[in-house]
Amino acid sequence: MTAQFSFDRFVVDAGQRRLTNGGEAIEVNSRYLDALILMLLHPGELITRDRFLDEVWKGIPVTDEALSQCIANLRRLLGDDAARPQFIETVPKHGYRFIAPVEERQVHTRFGRPILFPRGWQGGLSLTAACTVGGGLVGVAGGLIYGLGASPDPLRPAVGAASFLLVMLSVNILTAALGGFAVGVGIATAHRIAGPKVAATAVGAALGGLIVGGAVKLLGIDAFSVMIGKAPVSIGGGFEGFVLGGAVGLGSHLSLARVRSWPSISGAALAGGIAGAVLPLLGGRLMGASLDSLAEAFPTSPINIDGLGHWFGETHFGMTSQVGLGAIEGFLFGVGIAVAIRYSANLLRELGAR
C-alpha cells in the first residue's frame, strides 16, 4: 500500500516515485520529489529549513541555497509563483508551507511499482543497457556450467581445457547478453508506448525476445552454412525468446515478498524457471539443448553434452536433463534481468538525488 496525493491537476504517487500533470509524467529530481512529498504529508503546516535538511537531505551538509533551489524548481514544475503562491508559500526566515488543498489516499499495489527509469529515450537506453549487462552476467554462470560439464573426457589433444572453457564462456555471454538486450529493448519500447503496466512489460519482453531471437538464429544458421557448409537447425531462436522473455516480463511484476517493488526478483526468477522447464516439453531448445544439437550436427567437435545428463540420472542428454537445465537457465536469466534493472534504477535514482 502506498500514499497518493492529489492537488489541483497534479498527482504525486509516493510509492511509484512519480509526479503527473493531467496524467502526463513530469521528470523531477528525486531529492526535490522527497521535499514535495514531505510538504504534502503535512499540508498547511510550516516545514522548517532544518526539517527539510533532516528528512530530505538526511543530514548531508548542504547550504540554504540548495533548499532554495529545490523550492524554486518545484515551483517551476508546478507553474507556481513565489509572489502569488498557489501551492508553496514562503515563510521568511523559517521555511515553507504547502497551502493548496490536498487529497491523500492509500493505493493497494498488487503488481508492484512501475519502472523507476525516466520515460524519455535516456531511460529506455538505461533499461536496455541494464538488461544487456544482466544477461551477460548470467552468461558467465552458463559458460561455467557448460564449459566444465559439456567437454569430453579427456579432451582432444588439439583442444585444451582452458580454450574450450573460454569458448563456452564467450558463446554463453554473447547469447545471454543478446537475450537481455532483447528483453530490455522490448520492455523499454512497450513502456514508452503504453506505460509501465504489467501487460506492456510482458508483451514487450516477449516480442523483443521473438524478434531478436529469431534474427540471431537466422544469422547463426547462415554463418554456419557459409563457413562450414552445414548448419544445425534445432537451436534456440524466436520461439524460445518469446516464451522466456514474456515469462520474465510478467514475473517481474508478480512480487512474492511482503515488500512489493518493481521488478520483483523472486517473481522473475520463478516465472523464468517455469518457462525454462516447460520449453523443452514444447519442443523449444535453450542453451543446453542447442549445444546438444551442435554436437549431433558436428560429431567431430569436442562438445559432449551427454555428460550433463548424469546430473539428472540419465546416461545421455535426455528430456529430464533438458527440463532440469532449462529450469536452471530460466531461473538464472530471470534473476539476472531483475537484479540488473533494480540495481541500475536505484543507481540512477541516487545519481539524480545528488
Task: Describe the fold and architecture.
It is a single chain. The protein is α+β, with helices and mostly antiparallel strands and 354 residues long. The protein has two domains: 2-107, Arc Repressor Mutant, subunit A (Orthogonal Bundle), CATH 1.10.10; 121-353, no CATH class. It is built from ten helices and eight strands. The strands form two sheets. The protein has a five-stranded antiparallel sheet with strand order 4-3-2-1-8, with helices on one face. The protein has a three-stranded antiparallel sheet with strand order 5-7-6. Strand 2 and strand 3 form a beta hairpin. Helix 4 runs antiparallel to helix 5, helix 4 (121-149) runs antiparallel to helix 10 (319-353) and helix 7 (238-251) runs antiparallel to helix 8 (265-281). 42% of the residues are buried. The model is unreliable at 108-116 and 154-158 (pLDDT under 50). This is Transcriptional regulator. InterPro entries: OmpR/PhoB-type_DNA-bd, Sig_transdc_resp-reg_C-effctor, WH-like_DNA-bd_sf.
